Amino acid sequence: MTQENQQEIHKGLDGVIADYTAISKVNPESNSLLYRGYPVQQLAQQLSFEEVALLLWNGELPTAAQRDEFTAFERSHRALAQEVKTAIDVLPTDTHPMDVGRTAVSVLGAIHPEAGDTSPEVELRKAKELFAAFPAVVAYDQRRRRGLELVEPREDLDYSQNFLWMTFGEEAAPEVVEAFRVSMVLYAEHSFNASTFTARVVTSTLADLHSAITSAIGALKGPLHGGANEAVMHTFEEIGIDPKESREDAAARSKAWMEQALAEKRKVMGFGHRVYKNGDSRVPTMRGALDSMVAHYGRGEVMGLYDGLEAAMDEAKGIKPNLDYPAGPTYHLMGFDTEMFTPLFIASRITGWSAHVMEQRADNSLIRPLSAYNGPDERSL
Ligand code: COA
């Protein structure tokens, strides 16, 4: 058995700086996240998700004219393409929504009239089209899982309002729209995480944007990445959610559950981060959105479960929650099925992924690491 050990192996590429990016900066020391230089908390407070998307793509905040132009474009590209609907309808209604989302993006790429065109203008337009088109995929999939018909988009509503409208078939309360918008802004971009890096690897082969994003969705599905928001809700469900329970009782129960889980050496989803070691910069803002949903729906026991798990994890291991932790229960309270949470993450991250696709292509080098061989020594048949 040969073991090449002259070179250091960076398992999981831990600590490896693979390239430059001007799109976002994650700073674990100052616990901050900047999109194109702007703190994400400020963006989440002050900008629409549509404006944040333009910032990520273009590098600068949009002018009023650019914003209005994109608003009109986005609103006119929301309808579910017939080919995509047909492809979704072939899939069983219990197909995992991440598989549905991955299939939908693949179909959108295959039927695109400029499928093979990777020029900057066409690629930016494809990114905008995908941004506008994906909510209908999630909304339709959520509805068909419940035996409900497609709801057509409405051009008089903004992105978040329309997303909730197409999903639930009624206009959402302003607080709900606001919490949803905040979640979209916070999920939009996070440097070289696994799915973004996947998108860049695929782009580096000179494949098209839809191929890169279809692949990124595959990477996002895993519970160590995007699937964690869904897994968080499974934890809550395992502990048991009882709307009649007091916040204090729920907190005591979830604290005990966490102590037991850690004693059993279980990994609890929604906690920990490869880069942030002292708390995820996005959590306070998302927790604020969760607080407002708890107040809106009068569901104090959900916050009890949340606080109990967080406190017990902190006391036992000092590990802090990541964004998926408050996002999971927020989407639950809004009425989404647990399996729909990660597709909501896709809807948001299409912005960051496509910005990285364009950045990679603008200064490309094929991404192809080396490996150290540890198989059998050379032998003959
Ligand atoms: N629950 C319990 N223990 C955890 C933990 C969690 N969520 N996250 C980390 N730990 C512990 C590990 O068991 C390990 O302990 P040990 O040294 O006693 O073995 C230590 O903390 C380091 O963990 P490790 O998995 O090596 O850190 P990492 O930097 O490779 O992992 C994650 C980062 C995100 C993969 C990891 O924290 C995790 O799996 N979290 C849950 C999934 C999740 O929420 N993902 C979304 C990320 S945004």
TrEMBL record:
Pathway: Carbohydrate metabolism; tricarboxylic acid cycle. One of its GO terms (biological process) is tricarboxylic acid cycle. The active site is at H273, D324. It comes from the Bacteria. PROSITE patterns: CITRATE_SYNTHASE. NCBIfam families: cit_synth_II, PRK14033.1. This is Citrate synthase.
